[in-house]
Amino acid sequence: xxxxxxxxxxxxxxxxxxxxxxxxxxxxxxxxxxxxxxxxxxxxxxxxxxxxxxxxxxxxxxxxxxxxxxxxxxxxxxxxxxxxxxxxxxxxxxxxxxxxxxxxxxxxxxxxxxxxxxxxxxxxxxxxxxxxxxxxxxxxxxxxxxxxxxxxxxxxxxxxxxxxxxxxxxxxxxxxxxxxxxxxxxxxxxxxxxxxxxxxxxxxxxxxxxxxxxxxxxxxxxxxxxxxxxxxxxxxxxxxxxxxxxxxxxxxxxxxxxxxxxxxxxxxxxxxxxxxxxxx
Length: 280
Ligand SMILES: NC(=O)C1=CN([C@@H]2O[C@H](COP(=O)(O)OP(=O)(O)OC[C@H]3O[C@@H](n4cnc5c(N)ncnc54)[C@H](O)[C@@H]3O)[C@@H](O)[C@H]2O)C=CC1
Ligand SMILES: O=C(O)[C@@H]1CCC=N1
Known about the structure:
Elements: E1 14-17, H1 21-32, E2 40-43, H2 47-57, E3 74-77, H3 81-91, E4 99-102, H4 109-116, E5 121-125, E6 135-141, H5 147-157, E7 161-165, H6 171-180, H7 182-199, H8 204-224, H9 229-236, H10 242-252, H11 255-277
Bound molecules: 1,4-dihydronicotinamide adenine dinucleotide and (2S)-3,4-dihydro-2H-pyrrole-2-carboxylic acid (A1CAB).
The site of 1,4-dihydronicotinamide adenine dinucleotide has 28 residues, from helix 1 and helix 3.
Function: Catalyzes the reduction of 1-pyrroline-5-carboxylate (PCA) to L-proline.
Catalytic activity: L-proline + NADP(+) = (S)-1-pyrroline-5-carboxylate + NADPH + 2 H(+); L-proline + NAD(+) = (S)-1-pyrroline-5-carboxylate + NADH + 2 H(+)
EC number: 1.5.1.2
């Protein structure tokens, strides 16, 4: 099989169906790793978004799928779960013998296989830190996907950060609730810390820097350390001190329970998206 990352400028390597937030994050990674704009096609019906893609990546997106899609070795489906079926029926017939990679939440690979008439399907759940090369992606391949196909997907995804493979497709719904949606939880938490900081008299800029760097630093420490998270937390928590006061208030408010409840809601929503917008 020809690699989707082949370098001839006459042929397009990768086609994106949908050129929104997640597609942009992946394209950003590919462009930063030196993939020429000429090897990336994008189908994006929204004119304003096409102008943005042109300005950001120097890629002229197509408003509708056309014959050039058949030259793509890899087709990345980055449309909303609600519009996947319609997009698949529109663009699918133009895609030739490609390997397909879906980043849509919830939509199961069996539905996609039915719409596209091929078993060469990999599902991915990336996240938006991909835009700065710090993404985390979980991948699942249908049984017909070969080792070479998997390698081709890895070569694309590794331009955006780290990845892991899942043996069970169902686990993707849990991944969606954890790392797919996770950046939003982190931003929400940072927003709360910035708000509290400004309420306590810090400037917004100071509170922002302090909160963001605290997340960067704590994440780096958690990643570098071989110790359990609990130990790292306890090391910050002096007996009768300030952290203890804060964590006690969090426990009393049931924050951990609320947080777990929220993540279960996200996973259930992922499963429901598959039921609602997948094939029967
Ligand atoms: N945003 C995120 O953090 C993540 C999103 N995802 C998944 O990625 C997918 C895309 O999400 P976003 O990029 O956030 O959405 P988005 O709304 O930013 O992008 C979707 C794009 O698809 C375009 N589109 C609509 N109908 C189309 C069609 N028939 N053909 C081609 N393009 C069409 C829209 O104009 C839009 O620009 C979703 O399925 C979502 O579940 C997965 C992981 C993280
Ligand atoms: O909110 C969503 O449905 C998508 C999937 C994971 C992150 N964003």
